[in-house]
């Protein structure tokens, strides 16, 4: 199963089961990463539709959430990480399964 499918299933479960603690979130698929950095009208409109919550399926408008979750591919390392945009604090958190942050 690819990471986009897993995030889509998480979003479906979130919508079906009601509010979770801290559930003011939306989840993006890989299309966002593919569109970043492109300056033509098609890609700009696509990014705007994502921010408005029109796509991907089950997305929410960013104006109605506190966090945006997105899978991100580090192409050189051939590795996936999770990015969480905290829209209230203007922070981006990166979660990487290869890094042990619990060092003593």
Provide the descriptors you would attach to this structure in a database record:
104 residues; alpha+beta; Adenoviral Proteinase, Chain; 4-stranded mixed sheet; 3 helices; 4 strands; 24% strand; globular; Peptidase_C48_C; Papain-like_cys_pep_sf; cysteine-type peptidase activity; protease
Q: What can be said about this structure in brief?
A:
The chain is 29% helix and 24% strand. By secondary structure, the chain is of the alpha+beta class.
Number of strands: 4
Biggest β-sheet strands, sense, barrel = 4 strands, mixed
- The portion of residues forming beta strands comes to 15-25%
- Please identify the top-level CATH class: Alpha Beta
Descriptive account of the structure:
This protein is an alpha+beta fold and 104 residues long. The protein has one domain (3-95): Adenoviral Proteinase, Chain A (Adenoviral Proteinase, Chain). The chain has helices at residues 3-16, 31-35, 41-51; strands at residues 25-28, 67-74, 79-86, 91-95. Strands 1-2-3-4 form a four-stranded mixed β-sheet. The chain is globular and about 40 Å long. The termini are far apart. It comes from Prunus armeniaca (Apricot). GO terms for molecular function: cysteine-type peptidase activity. Belongs to the peptidase C48 family. Pfam families: Peptidase_C48.
